[in-house]
Write a structure and sequence with these properties.
This protein is an alpha+beta fold. It has a five-stranded mixed sheet with strand order 1-2-3-4-5. The chain is globular, with a radius of gyration of 14 Å.
């Protein structure tokens, strides 16, 4: 397995999201989302994408970790930990579902008392 800076193709991005049961908007929206990333990292086994993570934000003071995804066949071997690279920012945040909070706590993240609100969700 290799890790490299960069982003997946739109097709790879959508396929990896589908593999873990996440919804995905259409290709044009995914293309724009990927293009507006501050940084990305991908994990590959040969040519196959098996994991990815992205950072979005202003690129200087604040970053948000998004799309940390590891294909189910490659989970459980520390791949997610290797994908979360957040050095250089003053403040890095992420939104985590309850079932993955312990994973991020092991990486040094802590729950904050803030309350996030969502206007709409992907369909």
């Amino acid at each position: 397995m290799t890790f490299e800076d960069g982003l997946p193709t739109v097709a790879e991005y959508r396929a990896l999201r589908a593999a873990v049961g996440w919804p995905s908007p259409g290709p044009d929206v995914c293309r724009a989302a990927l293009a507006n990333s501050v940084h990305g990292v991908v994990a590959r086994t040969g040519p196959e994408l098996v994991g990815m993570g992205r950072l979005i934000g202003d690129g200087v003071m604040y970053l948000l970790v998004v799309d940390v995804v590891v294909h189910p066949a490659a989970q459980g071997a520390g791949r997610g930990r290797q994908l979360v690279a957040v050095a250089g920012a003053r403040r890095v945040q992420l939104v985590a579902a309850d079932e993955v909070v312990p994973f991020y706590e092991r990486l040094g993240f802590a729950r904050e008392p803030s309350h996030l609100m969502a206007y709409r969700t992907l369909r």
